[in-house]
Amino acid sequence: MQLYHHPYSLDSQKVRLALEERGVDYTSHRVNPITGKNMDSFFFRMNPSAKLPVFQNGSHIIFDTIEIIKYIERIALVSSGGDDATLSSQEVMEWMNKIQEWDPNYFTLFHIPVKYRVFVSKFLRRVIIARMAESPDLASAYHRKLREAYETEEKLRNAEVLRRSEEHLARLLDEVETKLGETSYLIGEEFTLADVMLIPVLARLVLLNLEESYINSRPNLVEYWNMVKQRPSYKKVIGRYFDGWRRHNTLMRTWCFLQIRNMLQRY
């Protein structure tokens, strides 16, 4: 089984947490979306949306995050000799879908300093143009990605897009806060795939230095966050890249790589 992912990708974090929690072995392929590796023709032919993660088991390829996690759960079930009764409950699935409905992309971009955001955006557009020249048979698909890049820049000029995203997130976290007032985890006293979906959202808020506004203002969420950060899966998937000084190291390596590639005009 192959997983194409990257630590920067929030959906990749969700899938990797599920793999670690369920103890499913896989081969890891890191595809950095900030440096444009997801635009390489090999990956682009497999997934023209260029989105991460992508899960491959033989000829079976899955692009949707929740579908990947459900597939992982079934693999773990078969491996353990369990039956369908041990699959995630309807309530777990409802929470998974509810969390996935919040789109972190524009929210994240809005909270990145403009000079970095603009630099990366220009770099990625040049990457797309370079890949288009290398693979003319994929030109129409690359043109579509180029249009999407310009449309994203246009949306980022609209404060209403950010307002709607912030309100959606606040409503979600308020509901989580209420639920955690009754149980230790999202669904009762046991860690479930619903928690797998939530943890990367909280980690993204911390990465963007928004912990005070969105987490610390909700006491049940604070207690929950401190608890789930102790899980081995969190430490392996997220903590090793973004906890403490590691965050600066991870981001600085990528920034230096982009600067060098841009200076050499190697896209």
Automatic annotation (TrEMBL):
Signal peptide: none
Boundaries of every GST N-terminal domain copy: 1-80
Superkingdom, taxonomy of origin: Eukaryota
Parts forming coiled coils: none
PROSITE patterns on file: GST_CTER (PS50405), GST_NTER (PS50404)
Domain GST C-terminal: 118-252
PANTHER family xref list: GLUTATHIONE S-TRANSFERASE TCHQD (PTHR45374:SF1)
Protein name: TCHQD class glutathione S-transferase
Species, as recorded: Cinchona calisaya
